């Protein structure tokens, strides 16, 4: 057994790379006599079918922070981290039923564009700048860092070369083809992602069971570490600060999920590119069912790795390779790359292709959305208001390239980041409650005013920082001492909504705002297929939480 790649692993991985690049460049080609316009580049000509939307949503979402970061959290805390995935399934249903009808009716390119139509250009610009900074300095950099960490662990490739290689791979087709290239290659990426992930899970559990198979391995893991299968953590659990018990179900998790799936450009952009609202809703439903499967391929391997390194017999069976890049509670993110070392020749290439698919598809999605926001909300608004299709598309490519280069410079500086998934959630969680408050009240409360929304968005940062920073230096009698960050998000959302509501009421004396959105029952009417699917998702989730409470 070797830690590196053998010939067949390289063959499988190179075949995957050629397939993705080939499909990406093929769908990117300009049709004869047609100049690619903004709708073609940023919204895939509004032609995506439901299955492409669903697959692309998952491919954009599942990246290094899930495969590596979530497996690391599974190693450190267990199945409880799966709440991010399982509750996302319900969130997707809510987004499909209540958010999408409004977004698609308004014909949006970007989420900041909704802010302009509901509030003002000033608030749109503030949020557009925030999102560009978040995508470049948090999302892109973390995905590049974790991806290069995997390359370093498995193949010994230096971090900086891994960062550059992944960046070039994603750029090769996404910069030229736009969302169309990203979405259609995502359909292939998600097949590699799921199959490769399942192979890794199967072989990890088969190793734990001593060759007795998947079910025996799952049973063994459950018997060895039953505490790792608790979804609702007790206060005595060291990971309670990250996943604070019942608050995961009724508190701040909703802030993280509603913000991410409802108002995150690189996620929602796929649904805006749908043929129709019904097609977008079917895609959302498909993604919700896929979400139920994801913990099996990104959390269970981390728990299996924890059992393996604490079992002397298994470690002896694995040989000298097992001592390389050994994960620990302090360096939990090494769990998934460590597992990949033990896969047989050929399958190691497939599993690594799955990891690469997750990384590259997310990078491509983030790049496309960063360029969409910059081009449509900054460039066309302030720099070149009369930009034609050619100038707009070219600026999209240039801005994506600049974002990628910046992320490549910053990524190696992340150093010894542990549990990267939690890092992303915690630092996004400082600003996401304020953004979510602005959107929720803007969508569903007609009295919300632009001035109040700006005050609320700005006030949300010091509110969030109070919970995060101030109390830790105070006495134990201080209010809200050491509040788990998920609870911080919940409190920040509620207080920000209160600020916006008060200022809106004072400004208009309780009257509706002129830009308020009229809400009708007909607007949120969904098809029988969507309703049945949504009910099935909720039943499955109820069973899962009942089993692993």
From TrEMBL:
Q: Which InterPro entries match?
A: Na/Glc_symporter_sf, Na/solute_symporter, Na/solute_symporter_CS
A UniProt-annotated Pfam family: SSF
Stored Gene3D superfamilies: Sodium/glucose cotransporter
Places the protein is found: Membrane
Give the main location. membrane
- How is this protein situated with respect to the membrane? Multi-pass membrane protein
Sorted alphabetically, the keyword list is: Membrane, Transmembrane, Transmembrane helix
Q: Where are the transmembrane segments?
A: 7-27, 48-64, 84-104, 125-147, 153-175, 187-205, 243-263, 284-309, 350-374, 395-415, 427-445, 452-469, 489-508, 529-548
List, alphabetically, the PANTHER family matched: SODIUM_GLUCOSE COTRANSPORTER 4 (PTHR11819:SF195), SOLUTE CARRIER FAMILY 5 (PTHR11819)
Q: What family is reported? A: Belongs to the sodium:solute symporter (SSF) (TC 2.A.21) family.
Q: What is this protein called?
A: Sodium/sugar symporter
From what organism does this protein derive?
Gelatiniphilus marinus
């Amino acid at each position: 057994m070797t830690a590196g790649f053998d010939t067949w692993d390289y063959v499988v991985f190179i075949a995957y790379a050629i397939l993705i690049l080939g499909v990406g460049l093929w769908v990117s080609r300009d049709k004869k006599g047609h100049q690619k316009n903004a709708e073609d580049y940023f919204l895939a000509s509004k032609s995506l079918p439901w299955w492409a939307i669903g697959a692309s949503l998952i491919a954009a979402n599942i990246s290094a922070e899930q495969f590596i970061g979530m497996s690391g959290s599974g190693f450190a805390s267990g199945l409880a981290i799966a709440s991010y995935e399982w509750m996302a399934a319900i969130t997707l249903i809510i987004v499909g039923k209540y958010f999408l009808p409004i977004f698609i009716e308004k014909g949006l390119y970007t989420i900041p564009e909704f802010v302009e139509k509901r509030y003002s250009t000033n608030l749109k610009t503030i949020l557009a700048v925030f999102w560009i900074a978040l995508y470049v300095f948090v999302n892109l950099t973390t995905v590049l860092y974790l991806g290069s960490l995997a390359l370093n662990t498995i193949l010994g490739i230096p971090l900086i070369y891994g960062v550059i290689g992944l960046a070039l791979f994603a750029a090769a087709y996404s910069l030229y083809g736009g969302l169309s290239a990203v979405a259609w290659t995502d359909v292939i990426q998600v097949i590699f992602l799921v199959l490769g992930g399942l192979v890794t899970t199967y072989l990890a559990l088969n190793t734990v069971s001593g060759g007795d198979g998947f079910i025996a391995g799952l049973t063994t893991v459950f018997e060895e570490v039953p505490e790792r299968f608790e979804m609702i953590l007790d206060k005595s659990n060291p990971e309670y600060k990250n996943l604070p018990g019942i608050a995961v179900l009724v508190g701040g998790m909703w802030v993280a999920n509603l913000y991410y799936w409802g108002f995150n450009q690189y996620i929602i952009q796929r649904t805006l590119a749908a043929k129709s609202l019904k097609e977008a809703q079917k895609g959302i439903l498909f993604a919700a069912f896929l979400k139920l499967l994801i913990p099996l391929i990104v959390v269970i391997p981390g728990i299996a790795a924890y059992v393996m390194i604490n079992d002397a017999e298994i470690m002896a069976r694995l040989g000298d390779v097992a001592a390389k890049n050994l994960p620990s509670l302090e360096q939990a993110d090494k769990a998934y790359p460590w597992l990949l070392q033990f896969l047989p020749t050929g399958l190691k290439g497939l599993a690594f292709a799955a990891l690469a698919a997750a990384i590259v598809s997310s990078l491509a999605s983030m790049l496309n959305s960063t360029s969409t926001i910059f081009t449509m909300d900054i460039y066309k608004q302030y720099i070149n208001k009369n930009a034609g299709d050619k100038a707009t598309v070219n600026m999209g490519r240039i801005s994506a390239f600049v974002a990628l280069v910046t992320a490549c410079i910053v990524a190696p500086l992340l150093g010894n980041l542990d549990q990267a998934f939690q890092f992303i959630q915690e630092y996004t969680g400082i600003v996401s409650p304020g953004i979510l408050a602005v959107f929720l009240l803007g969508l569903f409360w007609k009295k919300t005013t632009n001035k109040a929304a700006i005050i609320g968005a700005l006030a949300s940062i010091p509110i969030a920082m109070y919970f995060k920073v101030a109390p830790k230096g105070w006495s134990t009698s201080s209010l809200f001492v050491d509040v788990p960050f998920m609870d911080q998000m919940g409190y920040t959302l509620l207080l920000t909504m209160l600020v916006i509501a008060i200022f809106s009421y004072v400004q208009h004396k309780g009257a509706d705002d002129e830009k308020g959105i009229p809400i009708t029952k007909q607007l949120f009417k969904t098809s029988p297929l969507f309703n049945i699917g949504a009910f099935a998702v909720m039943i499955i989730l109820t069973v899962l939480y009942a089993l692993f409470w």
